[in-house]
UniProtKB/TrEMBL annotation:
Superkingdom of the source species: Bacteria
Annotated Low complexity bias: 110-123
Region of interest (Disordered), ranges: 82-123
Name this protein carries in UniProt: Helicase XPB/Ssl2 N-terminal domain-containing protein
Gly residues composition bias: residue spans: 96-105
Amino acid sequence: MSPSASTQDLAVHLTALPDREVAALLVARPDLASPSSSSFLALATRAGIQGSVEQALAGLDAPTLAVAEAVVALSRLDESGEAEGIGSTEAAQDGRAGGAVGTGGEPADDGPVGDPADNPDNADLAGLIAARLPLETEQVTEALDRLSRLALVIEGRPVAALEAAFGPHPFGLGPWAAEPLSAEQLPPTLEELSEDVASGAGEPIVPTASVEMLQALTWGPPAGTLRSGGKVPGAAPLIERRWLERSSDARGRTRFILPRQVALALRGGRLTRETLTAPEAGDLETVGGDVVASESAFHAEETVRLVGALLEEWGREGGTIRRTGGVSVRALTRTADALDLEPDAAARIIEITAGAGLLGLDDDGTTWVPSTLAAGWLADSLPQRWAPLALAWTGSARTAWLTGTRDDDGAL
């Protein structure tokens, strides 16, 4: 069984639906309704497009999104091409993700664990997920039903674009281990390992340095890159126990990855530490429509002003491009200081300006400078200047707010 539902799987699913459920899908996902599709295969193709899936996700609440991410996090293939059980809810509650039990709590044969049940029905899948999220089984069941009605989860499997929407590390989890691990090979919880080291009673399961490394990786990001000449003394005991995998990145640097089964065991079977309950209505601030309109107008005018200031600053000295792409740290810092903004806010203004076509490369192709459109934009009225900026922001898939954070390789 594929870990994700293919377009053909989705087409078969849609074909089997009663007319009223197909109509309900088109109402819930209006981007699929117009233009009309010539066949269920064409409809399935459109329903599986990344942009359409992201639009469907935008209307979901936090618990339903968490369940969708859980479906992705617990999907995989083993070497035989079959997805196997990740273990029962009892196993997760005992602090071992993927204990030696099958779905439904029945004893299972000894063997690889850490994978979801093969084509589980919603009851089994709901119990599996509820044991790993701070949600009741009934809530998970309702969320799975909704995801199924939205054609995002088919027979317990996510569509491929749903996997892509949550990225390579759902809930901060790394990839599954290259070779399956038995229940006996999985570690105790991170809390138990920490207590074992702190107790000082006898030889610890793994050294303190190894526990510190697990503390850094368990809740994500699940990978770290060793800089040239660097040493990680805590890695060797973990690699020996197969609790850590070593590889190389494209630049030849050593990369350490915490397998998904291991992370789940260290977490005590939990996918998240966050609360997924809705806030009390009485605790929410109510803002009048006039206040919203006033604040919106202010921020629109402020964005126009900042873009103008950026064009002026980069007209004097442009934004140097890094060899790996993007604006250099020095140029970003200088620009943030000139605009009196934090680096992430300055990055957002740069992205909006570039998206509106107001930035271009200099003759050498090494520096961002105002484009030929910039002079005309500066001469336009305020509404005319705001319109292309709003359009650029609306259609952008860039993530300027991640400026200054580290990726999974530990690089800025």
